[in-house]
Amino acid sequence: MAENSYIQKKYKISAEIVDRYNGLKSVDNIRMIRVISKDHNMLIMEDFMPVIGEVTGRVELVLEDDVVSVDGIHGFYMHKKNQFRLLIESYQE
Q1: N-to-C CA span, the chain
Q2: In angstroms, what CA-CA distances link 86 with 8, 14, 57, 75?
Q3: What confidence category does residue 61 fall into, taking pLDDT thresholds of 50, 70 and 90?
Q4: Domain count, the chain
Q5: Three-state secondary-structure class, residue 58
Q6: Inside any domain, residue 20
Q7: Which of 6, 41, 67, 88 sits CB 3.0–4.6 Å from 19 for a disulfide?
Q8: What angle do CA 12, 19, 37 make, to 5 degrees?
Q9: Which is nearest to 57 in space by CA: 44, 81, 76, 30?
Q10: Banded model confidence at residue 4, pLDDT cuts 50, 70, 90
Q11: 69 within some domain
C-alpha cells in the first residue's frame, strides 16, 4: 500500500429531503446529522436508534468534507436504519 494513499471512509447514512418547491434531493455518505430546533438539539450518527420528530430551525448533513445545511425550516423528520428523511412543510422568514 502506498504511503501517501488516502482512503475515504464510506459512511452508511443517507438522506432524502423533500419540499414542494425543489422536489426530492438525495444525499449519501453522511457522517452525522445535526437537528437544531427551537425546542431541542439532536446529533444523529450511524446506527442511531429510530427517531421521528418535528423541526423548526435547521438541519445539517455533515459529510466528510462538506456540510449540507437546510436553514429556516419547519418540517418533520424520521431516521430509521441509517436512512434519514426530512419533509419540509414551510420555510421561515
Answers
A1: 52
A2: 26, 11, 13, 7
A3: very high
A4: 1
A5: strand
A6: yes
A7: 88
A8: 70
A9: 76
A10: low
A11: yes
pLDDT band, very low/low/confident/very high, at 78 (cuts 50, 70, 90): very high
The CATH number assigned to the domain holding 68 equals: 2.60.15.10
Q: Comparing C-alpha atoms, which of 91, 93, 92, 84 is closest to residue 25?
A: 84
| Rounded Cα gap, residues 78 and 53, in angstroms | 7
Q: What is the pTM of this model?
A: 0.88
pLDDT mean over 63-90: 97
Q: Containing domain of residue 34, as a range?
A: 13-91
Whether residue 55 contacts residue 71, with contact meaning beta carbons closer than 8 Å, is answered with: no
Our CA angle for 29, 34, 39, nearest 5°, is 155
Q: Is residue 4 part of a domain?
A: no
Three cell numbers, residue 9: 471512509
Please name which of 1, 25, 3 lies closest in space to residue 14, comparing C-alpha atoms: 25
Whether residue 5 is contained in a domain is answered as: no
**Between these two residues, 48 and 3, which has the higher pLDDT value?**
48
